[in-house]
């Protein structure tokens, strides 16, 4: 990455996108996709694939799914994120992925045996109507008996002990990038505002870029999530801590992962 000439050389949002992968460089995408593949095979009544990925971000999970040889349709509301996903796939010469910009409710494709929404996608949904529409749209595009897998913050744990402050520093070539995460939580409305303050310095420690990016996260409780899934025709198969799939999640687990199945359609004799 090149060193920027002045603190105003990039808009704040561009600065966040440029260093997004650096900020989350310790995220274990390959490990998570391997777990997804195991869970899909365990709970699916059919062969895994094609796959629908909602909220693909910069393509960390997309890349690992595509490496498995599965046909993937990846969708995101953020066009800047999709541009990075496209470049990442092109750099790895991967061509079994179709990218879409927009909400899953607008997706024309259907017939998916596996749907995933990783890295807290549902926490970006602002209200109960949005949560219900989200799961209904996914269910409508899945095959009978298909599997949905997603992770999220556990609202019960987050409301008992709200997110706090975090600082980290990463060096990329001649650049030192400092991230300062601040959070403000409204317990009554079950919402947290996350603000990332970013500073980029050169080898002389001169500040060459700075900015902030904020996101709202809804702290859904497991019961709210399960109710929305049930209303969308999705059965809850499992809920575990994100990286401990053999354990049942409880109120102390901050990051949890759900596995659900679309109810199998049965035919009745006349």
Could you characterize the architecture of this molecule?
The chain is of the alpha/beta class and 270 residues long. Helices cover 28% and strands 33% of the residues. The chain has two domains: 12-22 and 158-218, S-adenosyl-L-methionine-dependent methyltransferases (Single Sheet), CATH 2.20.130; 25-154 and 220-262, Vaccinia Virus protein VP39 (Rossmann fold). A seven-stranded mixed sheet has the order 3-2-1-4-5-11-10, with helices on both faces. Strand 1, helix 4 and strand 2 form a beta-alpha-beta unit.
Could you list some keywords that capture this structure?
disordered N terminus; alpha/beta; 2 domains; globular; 270 residues; 8 helices; 7-stranded mixed beta sheet; Rossmann fold; S-adenosyl-L-methionine-dependent methyltransferases; 4-stranded antiparallel beta sheet; single chain
Mean pLDDT: 92
Distance between the termini: 67 Å
Neighbour order of strands in the largest sheet: 3-2-1-4-5-11-10
CATH topology of the largest domain, anyone?
A: Rossmann fold
Give the tally of β-strands. Answer: 11
- In quaternary terms, these chains amount to single chain
Largest sheet descriptor: 7 strands, mixed
Rg, Å, rounded? 20 Å
By CATH, the superfamily of the largest domain comes out as Vaccinia Virus protein VP39
């Amino acid at each position: 990455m090149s060193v920027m000439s002045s603190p105003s050389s990039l808009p704040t949002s561009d600065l966040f996108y440029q260093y997004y992968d650096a900020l989350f460089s310790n995220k274990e995408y390959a490990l998570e996709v391997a777990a997804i593949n195991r869970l899909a095979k365990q709970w699916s009544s059919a062969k895994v694939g094609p796959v629908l990925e909602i909220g693909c971000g910069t393509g960390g999970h997309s890349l690992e799914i595509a490496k498995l040889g599965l046909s993937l349709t990846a969708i995101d509301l953020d066009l800047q994120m999709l541009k990075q996903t496209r470049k990442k796939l092109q750099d790895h010469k991967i061509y079994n992925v179709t990218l879409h910009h927009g909400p899953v409710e607008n997706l024309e494709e259907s017939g998916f045996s596996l749907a995933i929404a990783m890295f807290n996608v549902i926490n970006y949904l602002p209200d109960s109507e949005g949560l219900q529409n989200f799961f209904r749209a996914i269910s409508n595009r899945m095959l009978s008996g298909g599997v949905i897998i997603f992770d999220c913050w556990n609202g019960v744990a987050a409301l008992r002990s709200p997110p706090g402050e975090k600082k980290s520093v990463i060096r990329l070539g001649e650049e030192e990038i400092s991230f300062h995460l601040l959070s403000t939580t409204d317990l009554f409305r079950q919402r947290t505002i996350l603000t990332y303050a970013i500073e980029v310095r050169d080898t002389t420690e001169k500040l060459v870029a700075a900015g902030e990016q904020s996101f709202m996260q809804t702290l859904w409780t497991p019961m709210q999530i399960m109710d929305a899934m049930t209303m969308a025709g999705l059965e809850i198969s499992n809920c575990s801590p994100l990286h401990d799939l053999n354990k049942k999640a409880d109120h102390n687990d901050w990051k949890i992962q759900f596995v659900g199945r679309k109810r199998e359609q049965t035919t009745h004799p006349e």
